[in-house]
Amino acid sequence: MKNTKFQAVIMAGAMAASALSSVSVFAEQTTSEAETESVVESKEESTEGKFVLEYPEDMQELGYTDPIVLDEVPERVVSLSTAPVLALYELGVNLVGIPNSMVVTWPNDLKESTETVSFSVMSPDDFDYESVVDLEPDLVLLAYNGADTAGKTLESLGIPVYYLYAGHTVPYESIVGQTNALIDAFAVDEESKEAGEKIQARFEALDKNVEAAKEAFEGKSVMVLQSSGDAHYIQTENGTLGSMAKMIGFENVYTNDQSSMVQLDYEQALDYDPDIVMCVGAEDAEGHKELMETAFAQNPEYWNSIPAIAEGRVLYLPVSYVSTAGINVVDCINELIGTVADFYGIEVETISVDEDASEEETSEAVSEDAEESTSEAETK
Fold first, then answer.
1. What is the structure's pLDDT at 276?
2. Of 50, 57, 48, 52, whose CA–CA distance to 68 is shortest?
3. Residue 79 in contact with residue 163, Cβ under 8 Å?
4. Residue 174: closest CA among 17, 56, 66
5. 55, 122, 355, 363: most buried, per Cβ within 10 A?
6. Residue 245: CB partners within 8 Å, gap ≥ 6?
7. DSSP 3-state assignment of 342?
8. Are 65 and 152 members of one domain?
9. pLDDT tens sequence across 258-291
């Protein structure tokens, strides 16, 4: 009997302890949630009414998690990267310094009102930081791979620096994420909000155009040949043009490397049998066509061993397909869809967004711009 009572007491004590433990765990969870909410609320209160420029997901994965927070919207902005320039320009941001670009032509009014500044990761010691300081910027945008050089110098001088996922080749998704972050921060009045909506509408239209292109071009293969003088390279699906070709449904014949571009292996290339060859270089389409046709004519025995070249299944594209430069990628991909559709003699229904009216219209993918970029290639 005593044992039974003793066991009952023990069980009651255990149950009480378990209940207390559960209450304690619940209390800890509640406290943790409350603390998290408090931190979030505190952060919101601390940034309320201020300019906040958040980092997109890919930059946060690189460790850039704290946003740029300023008391007011920046009135003098310098970009040492080409990537955000056009988006900032369309948002009406006052750009007082921008870099030179071989890939994209800046609007005339922007060129006339803005100083040219530059920074090269390849030669950071040549960075003329004084030319940037003289512009009295309240915000500088810089590719993240320049953080340890130009970034440190500018930050030491008290200049806020926002880092970008920028470089020779930037994934389309990164361009969209970065642009949306800029829109969220700089679209502060009716005019800039409308400009931001127009940019986002172009992204949305392109997504639909890409899906239509995939259906039209699915199963076709491509060799992306980038050339400079006598040097020839293969762009992989990670290259600028290579990634665009992949987006619209093409399979790259070169699959052995994760880099964006590799030197052409002349022997290996003889095993390629692409449906089409896309050629790109540092010239406009006609200039690059002339350069490549000269190269093909100088060694016809080799180049004609690649059926697509021998049969004229070659597209020549301008320098804008060598390197990405922000939101102009939308125009590049749309024009590529039109160029390829024209080459194959097919129609791809696409959506075009009028940049002035922000209205969607259904059109054929064979645009005048595409026709200008297309070489006089034979229709397959």
1. 96
2. 52
3. no
4. 56
5. 55
6. 222, 224, 237, 252, 278, 336
7. helix
8. yes
9. 788 899 999 999 999 999 999 998 888 898 899 8
Report the candidate in 266, 267, 296 with the shortest Cα–Cα distance to residue 279: 296
pLDDT given at position 88: 97
Contacts of residue 22, defined as CB under 8 A and 6 or more positions apart, other chains included, come to none
Q: What pLDDT score was predicted for residue 368?
A: 44
Please determine, for residue 60, whether its predicted confidence score (pLDDT) is greater than 90: yes
| Residue 293 structure tokens | 């046709």
* Token code pair at residue 217: 């071009």
Structural domain harbouring 320: 205-373
Amino acid identity of residue 357, one-letter, is A
Token pair 């890939």 is found at 103
Here the CATH number for the domain that contains residue 250 is 3.40.50.1980
Least confident residue range of 199-203, 211-215, 265-269: 265-269
Mind giving me the DSSP string for 148-200?
IIIIHHHHHTT--EEEE--SS---HHHHHHHHHHHHHHH--SHHHHHHHHHHH
Q: Is 36 inside any structural domain?
A: no
CA distance 153 to 132: 11
Helix (H) or strand (E) holding 349: strand 349-353
Q: Kindly give, in sequence order, each residue whose CB lies less than 8 Å from that of residue 203, ignoring residues fewer than 6 positions away.
A: 176, 179, 330
CA distance 364 to 350: 6
Tell whether 133 and 241 lie within a shared domain.
Answer: no
